[in-house]
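Q: Now give one record:
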Amino acid sequence: MNQETLAMLTEKAKLVRRGIIESTHAAGCGHPGGSLSIADIVTYLYFKEMHIDEKNPKMAERDRFVLSKGHAAPALYAALAYRGFFPPEDLKSLRKTASYLQGHPDMKGTPGVDMTTGSLGLGFSAACGIALAAKLSEESFRVFCAIGDGESEEGQVWEAAMFAAHYGLDNLTLFLDLNHLQIDGDIRDIVDPTPHDQKFLAFNWNVLTIDGHNFEQIENAVEAAKQCAGKPTVILAKTVKGKGISFMENQVSWHGKAPNDEQYAAAMAELDA
């Protein structure tokens, strides 16, 4: 990755993080922690990797992204807004009555959203279906999906993993947001889903592990996934919940809490520094 591209992605990620803070503050609710942890992955996909057209959101040959951890919608909405799918000022309407930016993604109401998600595990299964449909139709688009590590405690996740391997969905790339925190605490203290690498290997997946905040590692993993024939790829992305806002980092309390006015000002000052 050249320095110009790296600088561009760094600036876009800062905008995405600003959008997350803006929207959750305006809503007075939402999920900033897990949105911030996937901000760099979403930024890379929407500003570097994916074949999409903001002027034609339903373009048949577009790549698809399914946010299975749907509560992290503020990250997806910010990426879509700054990519040009809708005005960034609309981010402040998050979770408002009649807004097209609801608490979880809605493919029927929000431009650029490829799948409605919310119930954990649902999006991963849908992504598998989309990838299989592409195979059956001999279409070349790729499918990307993001799940949370707490989400990986859901049985549906492992049904989807088995399905994807069985059908050889090498057009599917799964990001597992490994920030180690879910709503009730450390994932290893709730229902320990680790070791993820060994489990996905046992399910016959191609398994890669990266720093989920390093754009060069994200790029290398995505490119490696493209070269893996005959099996799906999971990218285990080691991330930090609340990444980019010092007082939110690694704090489970920021899973589902919006910043107040003072915290909003402090967060935006950090992002502007």
In short: Residues 43 and 131 are 22 Å apart (CA to CA). Residues 3-272 form a domain with the Rossmann fold fold (CATH 3.40.50.970). The chain has one domain: 3-272.
